[in-house]
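Hi V.,

Quick status before I head out on leave. The structure for the redesign project is tokenized and pasted below; the design run finished overnight.
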């Protein structure tokens, strides 16, 4: 079956000409209507077409070109991203893109770490989440109109993960009704906040509140950093860029120090905790409510893991269709490298994962909006579940996506190492997601603690009902159950797949809980006992998160089936879901074998079924990546161009290399000529 209608995307940057014949053939042979899958991914035809209009507008706009990025210095890249910010603002006005969603779509299409990312992603959400109605009325219109530009300044030189260890102090001065912000030590210097170095005029600063020598914990404060007239730092503020990084060149991550800077009392964001004029402090309804913006961002990051991985897989799959190496037998045509089983085994599980994470993103978005609804009604009961689930999923999805991009790069051979493949910068700009918004390992501890706690409660109180995703912790009988998938066919049963993931997660939780007790019986207190099981806690968090991802993928397919989605689409999604489920069992086989849940009776059919799934996906691989519907601009890759003119594009882009501006190398006269022409 061919696609039901053609995507309406311009091929920008790629060298024009007849498309690659292999790609054309593969596209014509897809087993499902590609366009329908695109609609499914982006939430319907109307929404897809809207996104395409925005993507096309960006892709065809010279200001948003990406091809120069490899040849610019750090400073030039920062300036270029400011040019993009200005143009972004112009386009909002010109095309009436005033809704938050339109603006988010536009930023996503621009596809760059703009120095307003923190302004829209954390500064405004913190005012919305933590500010009183009056504070919102005062700052939101200014922020939304970009009359002020803000960031989120929490991390310090000395502490990031351990928020309670932050050293910046906000001391309340009752006599003037002001807070005095101070950085008492070098390690109190704010360090890392995006757009802090050179761009922001304001920021939300997290500082320890002190009232009459009493420590009241870390709270958010609105602080102006720079003059709105000339952008000079205000008195008492030392601010700048933290210098070169692994990548992220367009972003001015910054440092910031305060020397007894005074701000009015109403600059503490007081939706949940308040300081009255006389210094009376009212505690927030939940001690971690001021961490809510981080939870919001973690949910957002989970949502972007799918699209980031999907880009890498699109590049690698298209290239692997175009690239040919070796005939199988002499005299035969060379094989597309995607025909090789090893290439499929590297790429197709990642393709399946990109789809799996799409449904995880939908799930966490829904969970987050339910949580916000509750919070508005002063109901914080979902916060622990929201925090723990998002912490675990953020870790798992960013780890897998980061490693997946690198796998895609390596699977493109030598050309994958060229920056023109788009993969090195995709990787370098993405990997900090494993660190920012909570180091992944530290986040795993949060989920593991939560699971251990619930497991302990369920053990202590049989019959206790736990929330949906963790309800398996109630059923310790599950530990006695074994896998019965003794044929390839049985491995395709979602109930059996989920049983395996639940069993592994429960086993690891139970094992951790037992080890905790054993450590305490050896004489350790609880704190030290936890230290002794920390590596296992990371495994626990990952195992649970895998289960959540798979459970959502399975549920999503069931819902699609119930809502009448066509059989070809359901079939291909089911194949991807199966591959996701079985691949990650195979990848962690030791976990499943260790306690005898699986034996070689089950592993042989498991491996065989995975091979069958790879074969099943092969004819649809190009269509499945096409369904993500990325423009060439979004991919920014000579290897991933939609028309498959990989070699032409690579060759043309290489001509832009500044070294090629002259035929004779710079430095020739000083350094090469003397020895070439020296007398023997
Ligand atoms: C486009 C992308 C741009 C990205 C730009 C990046 C921005 C940033 O990176 S901003 C800075 C982000 N920083 C972090 O994420 C820091 C990570 N650290 C933390 O979140 C926390 O400090 C912690 C979770 C590691 C621990 O918090 P701590 O204050 O030390 O609390 P305790 O360990 O004592 O835990 C007490 C209790 O509270 C629970 N809890 C912790 N955080 C939350 C939360 N956000 N929501 C709800 N509950 C939370 C924690 O689980 C404990 O619970 P119990 O075990 O039940 O006591
Ligand atoms: C690109 C980028 C952008 C950022 N943007 C911002 C921003 O806009 N605003 C902002 O405020 N911050 C920002 N940050 C900072 C970021 O949030 C922190 O770096 C992050 O939270 C990790 O904290 P850390 O650096 O203190 O790591 P550390 O906690 O020092 O981690 C170092 C190592 O120690 C381990 N470790 C830490 N604690 C424990 C423990 N209790 N038990 C066992 N192991 C432990 C970790 O797993 C890790 O391996 C950004 C960082 C980056 C890289």
């Amino acid at each position: 079956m061919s696609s039901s209608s053609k995507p309406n995307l311009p091929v920008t940057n790629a060298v024009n000409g007849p498309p690659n014949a292999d790609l054309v053939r593969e596209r014509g042979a897809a087993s499902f209507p590609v366009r329908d899958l695109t609609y499914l991914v982006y939430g319907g035809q109307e929404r897809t077409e809207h996104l395409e209009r925005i993507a096309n507008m960006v892709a065809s706009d010279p200001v948003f070109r990406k091809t120069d990025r490899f040849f610019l210095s750090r400073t030039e890249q920062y300036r270029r991203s400011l040019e993009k910010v200005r143009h972004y603002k112009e386009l909002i006005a010109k095309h009436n893109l005033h809704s938050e969603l339109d603006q988010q779509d536009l930023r996503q299409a621009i596809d760059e770490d703009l120095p307003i990312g923190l302004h829209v992603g954390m500064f405004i959400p913190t005012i919305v989440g933590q500010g009183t109605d009056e504070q919102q009325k005062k700052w939101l219109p200014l922020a939304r109109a970009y009359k002020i530009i803000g960031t989120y300044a929490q991390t310090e030189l000395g502490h990031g993960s351990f928020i309670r260890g932050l050293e910046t102090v906000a001391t309340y001065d009752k006599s003037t009704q002001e807070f005095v912000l101070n950085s008492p030590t070098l390690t109190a210097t704010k360090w890392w906040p995006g757009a802090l170095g050179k761009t922001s005029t304001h920021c939300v600063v997290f500082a320890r509140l002190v009232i009459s020598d009493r420590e009241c914990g870390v709270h958010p404060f609105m602080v102006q950093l720079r003059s709105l007239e000339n952008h000079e730092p205000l008195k008492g503020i030392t601010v700048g860029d933290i210098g070169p990084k692994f990548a992220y060149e367009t972003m001015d991550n910054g440092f910031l120090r305060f020397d007894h800077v005074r701000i009015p009392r109403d600059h503490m964001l007081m939706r949940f905790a308040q300081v009255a004029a006389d210094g009376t402090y009212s505690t927030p309804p939940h001690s971690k409510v001021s961490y809510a913006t981080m939870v919001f961002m973690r949910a957002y990051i989970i949502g972007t893991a799918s699209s980031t991985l999907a880009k890498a897989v699109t590049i690698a799959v298209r290239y692997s269709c175009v690239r040919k190496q070796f005939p199988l037998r002499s005299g035969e045509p060379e094989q597309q490298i995607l025909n090789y089983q090893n290439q499929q085994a590297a790429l197709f599980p990642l393709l399946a994962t990109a789809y799996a994470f799409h449904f995880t993103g939908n799930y966490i978005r829904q969970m987050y909006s339910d949580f916000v609804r509750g919070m508005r009604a002063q109901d914080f009961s979902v916060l622990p579940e929201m925090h723990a689930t998002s912490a675990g999923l953020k870790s798992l999805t960013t780890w897998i996506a980061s490693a997946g991009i690198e796998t895609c790069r390596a699977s493109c051979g030598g050309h994958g190492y060229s920056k023109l493949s788009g993969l090195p910068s995709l990787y370098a700009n993405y990997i900090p997601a494993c660190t920012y918004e909570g180091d992944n390992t530290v986040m795993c501890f949060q989920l593991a603690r939560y699971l251990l706690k619930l497991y302990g409660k369920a053990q202590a109180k049989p019959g206790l009902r736990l929330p949906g995703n963790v309800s398996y912790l109630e059923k310790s009988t599950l530990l006695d159950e074994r896998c019965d998938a003794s044929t390839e066919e049985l491995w395709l049963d979602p109930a059996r797949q989920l049983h395996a993931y639940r069993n592994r997660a429960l086993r690891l939780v139970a094992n951790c809980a037992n080890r905790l007790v054993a450590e305490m019986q050896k004489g350790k207190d609880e704190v030290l006992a936890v230290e002794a099981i920390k590596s296992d806690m990371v495994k626990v968090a990952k195992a649970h998160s895998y289960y959540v991802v798979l459970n959502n993928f399975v549920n999503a397919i069931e819902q699609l089936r119930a809502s009448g989605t066509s059989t070809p689409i359901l079939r291909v999604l089911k194949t991807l879901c199966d591959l996701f489920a079985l691949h990650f069992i195979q990848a962690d086989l030791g976990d499943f074998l260790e306690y005898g849940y699986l034996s070689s009776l089950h592993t042989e059919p498991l491996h065989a079924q995975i091979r069958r799934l790879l074969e099943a996906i092969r004819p649809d691989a190009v269509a499945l990546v096409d369904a993500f519907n990325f423009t060439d601009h979004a991919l920014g890759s000579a290897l991933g161009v939609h028309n498959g003119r990989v070699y032409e594009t690579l060759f043309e882009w290489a001509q832009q290399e500044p070294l090629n501006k002259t035929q004779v190398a710079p430095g020739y006269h000083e350094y090469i000529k003397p020895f070439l022409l020296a007398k023997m």
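Above is the designed sequence. The radius of gyration is 27 Å.

G. will cover questions while I'm gone.

Best,
W.
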